[in-house]
Specification:
alpha/beta, two-stranded antiparallel sheet, 7 strands, single chain
């Protein structure tokens, strides 16, 4: 017969199970072989030079980057993840990190119907033909990339989900600090 678990023992077990790392770390990017084949770039690569339509003319992604980090979110055709991604970015990224030099660039790919609310603080650019996105990857959208100050990819995901949202926040805490 085993002894019943004490409250102190249970508390210790729960604390060890759900403990956060002492310092935020960039989470690993784990992709299947099939998903990796959809990626032209990966962790440590420089984000390719992208020419996007923004503010009535062509702009380089490099000109839109933040001083500390940049979140680049690509959205495509109607997808249930797009509205949630667009809704979460201001509060999850710009409110806590905007004053620390983090920028967000939302790229609407190939005529994406994704709707951005009037007055949104997001920088919205378009890639009408999809040629610019093809330098980054193919297939699944939305995608979220975090670039460091030099424009190198430190983390990304090829979807947007609760785990993507959590890992995006964790990555920014690591790259920028809390």
């Amino acid at each position: 017969m085993t002894a019943p678990m004490t409250t102190a023992c249970l508390a210790t077990l729960l604390a060890a199970t759900f403990a956060l790392p002492a310092a935020a770390e960039v989470p690993p990017v784990l992709l299947s072989t099939q998903h990796r084949a959809m990626c032209q770039v990966g962790i440590g690569d420089a984000m390719p030079e992208l020419t996007l339509s923004a503010d009535g003319g062509d702009q380089s992604l490099a000109d839109l980057r933040g001083k500390t980090a940049t979140v680049v979110a690509f959205v495509g055709q109607e997808h249930w993840m797009n509205p949630q991604l667009i809704a979460d970015l201001p509060g999850d990224v710009l409110e806590p990190y905007g004053e620390k030099g983090v920028a967000v660039v939302l790229v609407k790919v190939a005529g994406s119907p994704a709707k951005v609310p009037q007055g949104s603080p997001l920088t919205v650019a378009t890639d009408p033909s999809g040629e610019q996105f093809a330098k980054v990857g193919s297939g699944r959208l939305p995608r979220v990339y975090v670039l460091d100050a030099a424009g190198k990819i430190v983390w990304f995901d090829i979807e947007y989900s609760r785990s993507t949202r959590r890992e995006l926040k964790q990555t920014l805490a690591s790259v920028v600090g809390k």
